[in-house]
Amino acid sequence: MEQISKNWSQIRLRVNVKASIEKVYRAVATQEGLESWFLRSAEFTSAGGDPRKRKELLSKADRYAWKWYGFPDDTHLEGSVLEANGKDKFVFSFSMNCPVTVTIYSEQEETIVELVEQNIPPEEGPIFKHYLSNTTGWTFYLVNLKSVLEGGLDLRNQNPDLKNVITA
């Protein structure tokens, strides 16, 4: 019997969304967009240190500071935009400095959002925890992206007093 080996060094997820590629790109590559489905707070500054406007498309070398619903302010992430082509590909550093690539394309007359988190460190303990927790998180947030763009319903728990629910 052939043994199947799992590549624990990357997470690859796809979701179809009934929205244009441009609309999806704005949802993943602007402060306003990211705060509509993913983050409680997404602050961006240009490479020169100037704050980005909420609806402004982000650029390579922009820096960010992110906070999520369900977590206190001291739970935050800082990183940078690694690539932003302005139309269908957005790459940013994420936890453990793993790059996350969001690619948006058409397949079978559907808009596909593909998320790939790569270079998850191979240390045996952290790799499984990182892989499992981030896979769970990315799955939820991609479903929320689909929900927000298709019907406007935000599935995140935004009640700071409600603990131990799916997004916290």
Question: What does this protein look like?
Answer:
This protein is of the alpha+beta class. The chain has one domain (11-151): 2-Layer Sandwich (Alpha-D-Glucose-1,6-Bisphosphate, Chain A, domain 4), CATH 3.30.530. It is built from three helices and seven strands, in the order βααββββββα. The protein has helices at 21-28, 31-37, 124-151, and strands at residues 11-17, 41-45, 63-67, 76-84, 89-93, 99-107, 110-117. Strands 1-7-6-5-4-3-2 form a seven-stranded antiparallel beta sheet. The protein is globular and about 40 Å long. The N and C termini lie far apart (41 Å).
SSE arrangement:
Elements: E1 11-17, H1 21-28, H2 31-37, E2 41-45, E3 63-67, E4 76-84, E5 89-93, E6 99-107, E7 110-117, H3 124-151
Antiparallel strand pairs: 1-7, 2-3, 3-4, 4-5, 5-6, 6-7
Order of helices and strands: EHHEEEEEEH
CATH class: Alpha Beta
Q: Pick out the low-confidence regions.
A: none
Rg (C-alpha, Å): 16 Å
> Helical proportion?
25-40%
Sheet having the most strands: 7 strands, antiparallel
DSSP, total strands: 7
Biggest sheet, spatial arrangement of strands: 1-7-6-5-4-3-2
**CATH architecture heading:** 2-Layer Sandwich
Average pLDDT, all residues: 92
**Class of secondary structure makeup:** alpha+beta
The gross shape turns out to be: globular
Range of strand content: 25-35%
What is CATH's topology name?
Answer: Alpha-D-Glucose-1,6-Bisphosphate, Chain A, domain 4
Name the quaternary structure.
single chain
CATH H level, superfamily name: START domain
Distance between the termini: 41 Å
| DSSP helical segment count | 3
Counted up, domains total: 1
